[in-house]
Recover the amino acids of this structure.
């Protein structure tokens, strides 16, 4: 691990093979590398060495790399990284590349990508969005190759494709193929208006909890999902919706009055969340009602035992015949 002058941290592995010292550069923290991931990579490399199947990477061909197309470079970058991501995140990355970045940058050489080209891509996506919106307004929606209706991209979605482009070109900078990253910086992004979020006052939360409790008692006489403990825990713990939906009983540490979050998207997301006594009481009352057979059961589950989601309809929580 080495901290560069620009503040980025580069991770590399040092090990011996047949008495010869080898150094394998992994990437930087902006590429998603952490000490934990580097340690796992080292374990994998050592296992391959013990099995006799490890081969040193080919030396880089600088001239060849500079003339290779974005398609080739991005495909190699993705092949090396996709195994580190969760399935849902992997789908999002593949969508950004396949639907947006590759169609535009596909045939450009890495060395040809500059600020002007990145800005032209951004302008292209905005113009494309207007064309899709106009077609919808004219009741003649455009469709993709699979026949599905195209939807206009928001500024935030366009920015996310630019974030992925930035990550790809960061790797090109690391390899000396670009002097600087033309996609990096706020000036390359579209402005996103943040929604105004109303904060719950104490009286509002109290009333919301009362209504949630009534819904659990009265609306569904069979299977109940625990709206009241769910709202209480989210309001006072700061958990993300997906973290709350995937919470298991083993994650509720009553003795230390905390939640153990160990299935977050990033290593930084794995953490302990302290709970107030009233939230602990809500969860314990809910556990007494649910009587889970295993600590691996979800705290907030559907009738089938799967975890709830933000998109799950109320009908999914009712009894099945």
């Amino acid at each position: 691990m080495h901290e560069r002058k620009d503040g980025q941290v580069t991770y590399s592995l040092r090990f011996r093979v047949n008495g010869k010292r080898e150094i394998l550069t992994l990437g930087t923290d902006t590429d998603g590398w952490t000490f934990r991931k580097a340690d796992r990579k080292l374990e994998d490399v050592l296992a391959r060495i013990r099995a006799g199947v490890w081969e040193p990477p080919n030396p880089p061909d600088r001239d060849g790399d500079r003339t290779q197309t974005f398609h080739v470079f991005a495909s190699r970058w993705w092949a090396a990284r996709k195994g580190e991501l969760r399935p849902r995140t992997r789908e999002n990355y593949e969508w950004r590349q396949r639907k947006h970045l590759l169609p535009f940058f596909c045939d450009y050489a890495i060395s040809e990508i500059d600020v002007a080209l990145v800005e032209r891509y951004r302008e292209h996506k905005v113009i494309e969005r207007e064309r899709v919106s106009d077609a919808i307004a004219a009741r003649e929606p455009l469709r993709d190759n699979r026949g599905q209706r195209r939807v206009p991209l928001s500024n935030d979605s366009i920015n996310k494709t630019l974030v992925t482009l930035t990550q790809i070109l960061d790797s090109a900078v690391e390899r000396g193929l670009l002097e600087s990253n033309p996609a990096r910086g706020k000036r390359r992004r579209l402005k996103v208006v943040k929604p105004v979020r109303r904060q719950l006052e104490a009286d509002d939360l109290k009333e919301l909890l009362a209504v949630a409790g009534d819904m659990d008692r009265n609306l569904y006489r069979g299977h109940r999902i625990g709206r009241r403990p769910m709202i209480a825990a989210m309001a006072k713990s700061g958990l993300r919706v997906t973290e709350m939906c995937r919470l298991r009983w083993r994650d509720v540490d009553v003795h230390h009055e905390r939640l153990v979050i160990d299935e977050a998207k990033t290593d930084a997301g794995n953490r302990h969340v302290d709970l107030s006594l009233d939230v602990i009481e809500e969860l314990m009352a809910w556990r007494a009602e649910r009587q889970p057979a295993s600590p691996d059961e979800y705290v907030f589950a559907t009738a089938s035992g799967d975890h709830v989601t933000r998109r799950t309809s109320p009908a999914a929580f009712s009894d099945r015949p």
